Hints:
There is one protein chain. The chain has one domain. Helix content is 74%, strand content 0%. The protein has helices spanning 2-30, 34-44, 51-68, 72-91, 95-113. Helix 1 (2-30) runs antiparallel to helix 3 and helix 3 (51-68) crosses helix 4. The longest helix is centred in the first third of the chain and has 29 residues, at 2-30.
Amino acid sequence: MQNYQTAIARILLSLVFLGTVILRLMVITSQPNGYMDYQVSLGQVGLPGIFAPLLILVQLVAGIGLLVGFKTRFFAYVLAVLAIFLAIVLGRFDFQSMFIYLGIAGGMLMLATYPKTGLSIDNRVKKDHIF
Length: 131
């Protein structure tokens, strides 16, 4: 039962970032100036426009990695650093977002400490193949 609980926790944590990216991509593609609007919104919190594709790529790749349980420890550390970065950047404007991202970073650090979860690629059974 514990393996399934840790798998659910891993999947829910991955959905925080995957859901954000999916919603962001839906907004970007639904509006003619969607990508430019996203870059402008990053500029309002003090980030240059180059962070737009970088944030999308990191959240997408690391979120999928966590979702399927591939390189769980590595991707958990990556997303923990990203969450702390976002907490610092967004914390200047919205304290609630800062505490939410700090909590997510804590969950990611816990996942990095205990990366062996159920239903993950990292824990697949390796069988010896005889040729």
